[in-house]
Please model this.
Amino acid sequence: MDSESLSKFFRARKTMNQMLKDRSYIVFPDDIETESRESFDSKYRDQISSLTITGKKEGEMIGADGSVIVFFSSDPKIDNEKFQKYFKNCNDANVENMILVVSGSITS
Model:
């Protein structure tokens, strides 16, 4: 993955973690404050397509209504078949809330 794409995913992940924290989801402090671009690149360079965040509201268990899974997709287009795979992953994890961050567009 090129440097520009990694930079976009780094900023999106950082923003998403901050948004989840602002909404009382439990987020590791390292994911918001101290993770540098360099550590992100070394950790996720080859696995952007499988990058996810799983969060839960304070005081609730994963799988409860307060849980969320955030998927980051590097695919240029997300069609219904790919979307259904993300949806199935949420169902399998017994999580009702999903956020899908895409780098391109969603098609039917």
